[in-house]
Amino acid sequence: MSNLVTIKDIARALNISVSTVSRALRDAHDVSLETKSKVEAMATALHYKPNFNAMGLANGKSHNIGIVLPFITNYYFSTVITGIQEAAYNNGYNIVLYVTNDSPERELAIINNLSIANLDGLLISTCCKTGDHLQHLLRNKIPIVFFDRVIEKVETSKVVQDDYNGAFLATSHLVEQGYTKIAHIAGPRNLPLTEKRLTGYLDALKKHCLPIREEWIIASGFSQECGESDAMELLQLAKNMKPNAIFAVNDRKAVGASITLKKQGITIGKEIGIIGFTNDPISCLVSPSISTVAEPAFDIGFISCELLLKHITKKQTPCQEIILPAELIVRESTQRA
């Protein structure tokens, strides 16, 4: 026999009607503060847990939110998920993860096969360049919030780190350390994240009147392996064209670049400086430790989820773009002494 506490048990304990308990738990305006306090206290005493399945049938809500993201195995996205979980669970929502492995084709398949009836909203960090695959969700009034990797032309809320100023900080730091030939190993082109970090890098070079060379800018994936191959491509340039510093789009690529440099017998910092972007724990575990720009990953997850919940509960909430500041962290890889 089930021992699950229901609102009938609360009503019986307080000798009030079931409808009054229901309205009190929903914070209805026609229930007094005194009654609400008694109901909440009794609900706590009886260890009452809302039945979201029943509530969903009554109000058309599933209390599930979907998360579409490229990876769950790296530090940044696992920390974002932690932030999302905290906000979701605090508000009585469950999360459903969908992982694209950074494949636009897989993202398209996931979105096309989503069960709209089982999701109240969607958080997405995209690997696609256009938002055409999301239009049927928007037409069906499914709230969507982008985080980290966004599609700017899609009219939804977005939560991101300050990619432009973070890249500007990183490149300016290299200049201040005395590096004058600075390369950039970028992410895939046409992603807003990639383009903003590229623009921050270029603007910092312009401000300090340093050369910008096309062969010093290499766009590829976000993985450590891409960082290794990008760095090798830079080392194969003519001697007078080789850079003396590398700004990597993320820490994984910075680590890959450092592996290549060490294999070639190059002293990191003294001969070629390296700086990344993320503050992945691996950046301070490798030797030499890698300077970076820290991203507020937990906050991005928490804030994006809270914003999605606003869109779910208040349909008229206007779209917002929230940009969180980045922070420069200096380590051994940019020390020339």
Automatic annotation (TrEMBL):
Keyword field: DNA-binding, Transcription, Transcription regulation
InterPro entries referenced in this protein's UniProt entry, alphabetically: HTH_LacI, Lambda_DNA-bd_dom_sf, Peripla_BP/Lac1_sug-bd_dom, Peripla_BP_I
Stored SMART domains: HTH_LACI
Presence of keyword Transcription regulation: yes
CDD domains registered for this protein in UniProt: HTH_LacI, PBP1_LacI_sugar_binding-like
Keyword Repressor: no
Domain HTH lacI-type: 5-59
Superkingdom of origin: Bacteria
GO MF term set: DNA binding
PANTHER family: HTH-TYPE TRANSCRIPTIONAL REGULATOR GALS (PTHR30146:SF109), LACI-RELATED TRANSCRIPTIONAL REPRESSOR (PTHR30146)
Annotated protein name in UniProt: LacI family DNA-binding transcriptional regulator
Organism: Olivibacter oleidegradans
